[in-house]
Amino acid sequence: MTVTTVRAGMVAPFHVMRILADARRMEAQGIDIVHMEVGEPDFPTPAAIIRAGIEALEKGNTHYTPALGLPALREAIAAYYLQRFDVGISPGRIVITPGASGALQLVLALLAEQNSSVLMADPGYPCNRNLVRLSDAVPIQVPVSRDDNFQLTPAAIVSAWRDDTRLVIVTTPSNPTGSVLTLKALGALRQVVCDEGGMMVVDEIYQGLNYGEAPTTALKLGNDLFVINSFSKYFGMTGWRLGWLVAPEAMIPALDKLAQNLFLAASTPAQHAALAAFEPETEAELERRRCEFERRRDYLADALEGLGFRLGYRPAGAFYLYMDCSAFGMDSDTLARRLLDEAHVAVTPGRDFSEHAPDKYIRFAYTADIDRLKEGVRRIKGLLTA
Amino acid sequence: MTVTTVRAGMVAPFHVMRILADARRMEAQGIDIVHMEVGEPDFPTPAAIIRAGIEALEKGNTHYTPALGLPALREAIAAYYLQRFDVGISPGRIVITPGASGALQLVLALLAEQNSSVLMADPGYPCNRNLVRLSDAVPIQVPVSRDDNFQLTPAAIVSAWRDDTRLVIVTTPSNPTGSVLTLKALGALRQVVCDEGGMMVVDEIYQGLNYGEAPTTALKLGNDLFVINSFSKYFGMTGWRLGWLVAPEAMIPALDKLAQNLFLAASTPAQHAALAAFEPETEAELERRRCEFERRRDYLADALEGLGFRLGYRPAGAFYLYMDCSAFGMDSDTLARRLLDEAHVAVTPGRDFSEHAPDKYIRFAYTADIDRLKEGVRRIKGLLTA
Questions:
Q1: Nearest by CB: A250 against B1, B61, B110
Q2: Which of B320, B286, B288 lies closest to B84, judged by CA?
C-alpha cells in the first residue's frame, strides 16, 4: 500500500468526534452523559413532513428526479421566499441538493478552482474550510472577534483579499457563535466583494432560528450571489440530507451539469416529504420550537455566565453559545476533556472552529431540553468549584 | 459577473439529457415516446424495502447516522457478501454513501490528487471521467473494443500507464456495454495494477444483474482494492440515493474524515429501508426481475440484430445493449436524433460514453417492459426501412 494520501492530510479531524465516541463508550458502560456538543436539534422531524414522506413511499415516488430537483419543491421554496421574506426568486434559480454540503460542493466545484483562494471567518464551521481544501483551493481564515460580532467586516475582507481570491463565504446565523448579520451589514460585505471582483456565498442554513429580529435573506440584495440553505436545522430534517442552493441564473446550466455528475439528484422521498415543510401546521410547530430554543438560550447563557464563562452578547440565532473559557486557567481542549471525563458533560472545544484562537473558547449547543441543560450546568459547576 | 468557470468547462454535458428533455417536450404535446435511453429500472422499489422505509419514518429514524453509516446496515452488507459470494468482509471496511457517486467521490478525494492520472475503459460511464476531472486529476481513457469484451486488459493497462497514474477504474458489469469480467480476468488486472504500484477501483453497481454466470465480486481477490456498489440498480432503490464502498482497512479513518466533510452521512430513512434489501422476500422479487431483464435482453438483441445493428456478443450483465450502428450510413448522433424525431424512440448516442469512437454506437436500455420494447423495435424498423 504505497499510495500517498495528501488530500486526506489536508483535512483536520473533527475533535468533537473523539469526544462523541468517548461519550458513547461511557454511555455503553452505563454512565449518564449530558450532550451539549451535538449540532442537531433534539426535536423529531415535524409530523406533517413525516406523513408526506410516508405518502411518497406508498405512492412509489422512488425514482430519480431531475438533477436540479423536483419542480414542485423548487416552486415551493420560491413561494416561501416570497411569502416569508418578500423576495421574488425564480424557481429556475433554485437547485435542490443532498444537504447544504452538496450545495457548497456545487459552488466550489464551479468557482473554487485549483490554487484560488476563498475567504471566510475564523471561527467558523470546519467543513467549509475543509471542502475548500478538497477543491484544491486555499481557505483564508480571517480572524473575527466579539468586537465585530464574530462576522467578517468590509475592512477585514479588503485587507485579506489576494489576487487569487474568488469567493467569500459568509455564515449568518453563524456556527459556532450564533451571531447574525443585518441585511445592511450583508449589503456592505457584498459591495466590497463585488468591488474586488469576487462573488459571495451566504450560508443561511440556520435561517429561521432567529431570536429577536425576524430573519432575513441575502437574496434581497441582488441576483449576483449564492445562497445555501438546508432542511436540516430549522425544518428538523437532518438525517434526510436535503438542502438547496440559490444561484445567479447564468450559472444554472453549469450547476445542472455538475449536479448530474456529483450526485445525480437529491433523495426523491426526502424531496416529496419536504413539500410539507411549508404547510401552516409545520410552520406553527417550528415556531413553537423556535421559542423553546430561545428559552434555552436565555437560560444557558445566564447560567454559564454565572459560572465564569464569558459571552458578553446574546447570540441572535442558531442554537449555540461560543463561550470564552480563559478564566479557568486551562486551554479549552483540556477543559472539554475534563468536562467529559469528570463531569460527564460533552461539549465541543474551540479548535474545531478556529485556527487562530483554538484554546480560548468552547461551543455549547442547546439541543437538549431545559432540564438536561440544568443538569449539565449543575455538573459543570461541580467541576469548576470543586 | 466576471468569474471564470474552468472546471464546469472540463465536464462534458450528457447528450442524453437533451434527448430526454426533447422527449419530455414531445410527450407534453401528446406524442407517445418509447424510452430506451433511461439507465433506471422501470420496476418500483421492492415492497419490503418500502415497508421498512415507512416503518423507519413512523419510528422517527430521521436523525444523523455516523458518517460511515448505520452499523446494522454495514453488518447486513458484510453478511450478504458472506452468504452470496462466500467472502468474509469486516463491516468495519464498509462505508455507506449517498449513491455510488458518493463512494467514487470518496475514493477520488483520497487518492486522485491534483495532476495525477486515472485509467479507465472507453466506452465507459461518463460520470467516472468527469468526477476525475472535478478532482483536478486526469482521466486516461483507454480504448477497448468487442475483441477484448469491452474491458481493460493487462496489456492495455501496462501500455497506458504513466508515472503519474494512481488508480484504475474497472466496471463490471459495464455501462454501456453490459460486458462482465470473470474473477480470473479481474485477478489479472489487479496483478498488473499492483505491479505498477497503483490501486484498483472496481465499480460493481450492476452486480446481481447477471445473466448466465452467477455474479462474483472483486473482493475475493484480496483486501488491497476498492469496491463501489449501490442499492440503485439491482435492489431497485435509485431515487433513495444509497450506495456503499468497501475499502482497505487502513484507509477507513481517512475516508471517515472525508465523508464527514463531503456529506456528513447518507440518508437515514434510506439506510433503514435498505436493511430489508437482503430479506428472502426481496431476494425472490429481485430474482424475478433479473429473469425478466434477461428475457428482454434476448428479445431486444435478436430484434435489433435483425434490423442491421451489430452486437456480436450477448452482454452478460446490466440492462444495456451497446450496438454498432455504422451499417446505416449516418453517425450515431444523427441516428439518435432521427429515432426520436421521426420514430419517437429515445436512445442514448455513443458519444456520451466514448471519446475515441463517439459516432459508431448507440446504447439501448431495456428498462421498459417487453411490449414497449416491441413497439420501439417496430418504430425503428419503420424508420430504417422507409
A1: B1
A2: B286
Q: Which residues pair with A321 in a beta bridge?
A: A364
Residues A239, B63: C-beta atoms closer than 8 Å? yes
**Residue A243: closest CA among chain B residues belongs to which residue?**
B263
Cα torsion for B334, B340, B346, B352, to the nearest 10°?
Answer: 20
Distance CA B271, CA B283 (A): 18
What is each CA distance from A231 to A77, A108, A242, B132, B198, in whole angstroms? 11, 20, 6, 30, 41
For residue B85, give the H/E element and its range: helix B71-85
Q: If you average pLDDT over residues B343-353, what whole number do you get? A: 96
Where residue A225 falls among pLDDT bands split at 50, 70, 90?
A: very high
Closest alpha carbon within chain B to A9: B254
**Does the domain formed by A6-44+282-384 have CATH 3.40.50.80?**
no
Inspect the interface and report whether the beta carbons of B258 and A11 lie closer than 8 Å. Answer: yes
Does B153 score more than 60 pLDDT? Answer: yes
Determine whether domain B47-278 maps to CATH 3.20.20.150.
no
User: Distance from A386 to chain B by nearest Cα, in Å?
Assistant: 35
pLDDT surpasses 60 at A200: yes
Counting Cα atoms < 13 Å in the Cβ hemisphere of A344 gives 14
pLDDT digits (tens, 9 = 90+) for B37-67: 988 999 999 999 999 999 999 999 999 999 9
DSSP of A240-260, one letter per residue? Answer: G--EEEE--GGGHHHHHHHHH
Q: Is CATH 3.90.79.10 the right assignment for the domain spanning A63-279?
A: no
pLDDT at B44: 96
Per-residue pLDDT tens digits for B93-152? 999 999 999 999 999 999 998 889 999 999 999 999 999 999 999 999 999 999 999 999
Contact A383, A339 (CB under 8 A): yes
In terms of pTM, does the model score above 0.90? yes
Contact A254 B8 (CB under 8 A): yes
Cβ count near A184 (within 10 Å)? 9
Average pLDDT over residues B300-316: 96
Residue A2, min C-alpha distance to chain B (Å): 7
Question: CB B131 to CB A261 under 8 A?
Answer: yes
For residue A229, the distance in angstroms to the closest alpha carbon of chain B comes to 15
CATH 3.90.1150.10 domain locations along chain A: 6-44+282-384
Residue A23, pLDDT score: 92
Q: Are A358 and A332 in contact (CB under 8 A)?
A: yes
Mark yes or no for CB contact A264/B101 under 8 Å: yes
CA distance B371 to B272: 35
Q: Is B101 on the interface with A (CB under 8 A)?
A: yes
Torsion over CA: B304, B310, B313, B315 (sign): negative
Q: Is B243 on the interface with A (CB under 8 A)?
A: no
Find chain B residues with C-beta within 8 A of A124's C-beta: none
Architecture of the domain spanning B10-39+282-384: Alpha-Beta Complex (3.90)
A14–B contact, CB cutoff 8 A = yes
pLDDT at B115: 87
Element of type H or E holding B361: strand B361-365
Residue written as grid cell 463517439: B358
| pLDDT for the residue numbered B5 | 65
**pLDDT mean over B267-286:** 97
Q: Which chain B residues are within 8 Å of A251, Cβ to Cβ?
A: 5
Tell me if chain B has a CB within 8 Å of the CB of A90: no
